[in-house]
Amino acid sequence: MRRLLNMIGMVLVGSAWGQYFEPPPMNPDPVEECVPIQKNATTPAQEDSSGDSPEIDNTHPVAREKTRVAVLGYHNFSNTKPVTEMLMRTSEFRQQMEYIRKAGLRVISMKEFLEWRLGNLQLPAKCVLITLDDGWRSVYTDAFPILKEYGYPFTLFLYTKYLSGRGDSMTPAMIREMQQHGATIGSHSTSHYYPSTWEKELERGEQAFSELMDKEMGDSFKRLGELFGPINAYCYPGGYVTPEMIRQLPSYGYAVAFTVIPGKVDVQEDVLQVHRYMVFGTDSSIFRRAVDFSLRAANTQQAAKAHRNSPIPPFPVYPAPNAEVYEDLAVISAQVGTVQNIDLPTVQMVVSGFGRVPSRVESSSGAVQWNPPLRLYQSPIVVELSWKDVDGTPHKTSWYFNVKRNTQLPYEKHDENTR
User: Fold this and answer.
1) pTM above 0.85, yes or no
2) Domains present along the chain, CATH in parentheses
3) Where are the alpha helices (DSSP H) in 151-218?
4) Using CA atoms, how far apart are residues 65 and 122, in angstroms rounded to an integer?
5) Average predicted confidence (pLDDT) for the chain
6) H or E stretch including 221?
7) Which of 56-70, 95-109, 140-154, 174-188 has the lowest mean pLDDT?
């Protein structure tokens, strides 16, 4: 498969982790089991009225509409191979799982997720669903021992042509062992085709596209069911999804399907286009955004509306205010060198959907830059820049731009030489 292009992001691991992760104190009481909804059921959890308070009780079920779920997506692991978007340090994965424990977040299974989403189960207010794509052998050798140690359920999204046990792939026996320790199996298609393949078939006509769906989505459902028992979850390879796919999925037997678009999941989530945070090995900020359940991570549309009437920044920015860009945008930047008395080390950038990002400031030119580690999906995108004068006076400005899709580009890339 094709080489990963445009590797972007900062690798923040090891001893540096502590400065980015300071979870609230974990409630010492054990997490209670989720309970089925009953008429007139009471929910003892206190409402998080402040939006940012970490003190919300996450040990008890709440009303279904008050639960939010962060779905995490992982791929490959190693403590020795070079880090890439798709390959994370095993030690960093352990640190993330430990953060989840310390923060008191509830890790739920796919079964619990579906029962909550379809209306039969109440969950705590803040939950995490862990998913791992493709079927890399390192999921068994590196991630599985950690997940088993913490007692976390997880879902393996497998594509059936990568189940041979050859090279870096897992064997069915490894997967069955993981099923005995909390693993749920879902489909990641038969061949993991890229969007370009799907689009070529779509151009050939409805019949060709339908036959490809039968092969990739239908045959995978049957084969995985034969190997591991009934399945009901699908994960779009590369995040590529069309209306035809959405209409066809239930006919194969799927009840839920996941994208690669980041965002918290609530009870209104489209069950066939569920948001998911793809946690890259090159950018630990994605995980931080995923486990930030404060209301300051509000939805992008509301944020954009609040900023539409704000004055534009008093210096050049890119993309320009109200500009339209493609989703593969390489950089977001601002030229703050002309701002008088600015204290450059205090400059911070916040991007809607990503939160505070690890932007770089060039002291010589006053350029502030951030390279998005994944394609931008939600539109509009709001950028907020804050800084202080040398005397400590704070300043803030913001702007927004719009995103349109470039269908010629794949949403997710892998390295062919490692398959």
Assistant:
1) no
2) 14-297 (3.20.20.370), 300-404 (2.60.40.1220)
3) 172-179, 195-204, 206-213
4) 9
5) 81
6) helix 219-228
7) 56-70
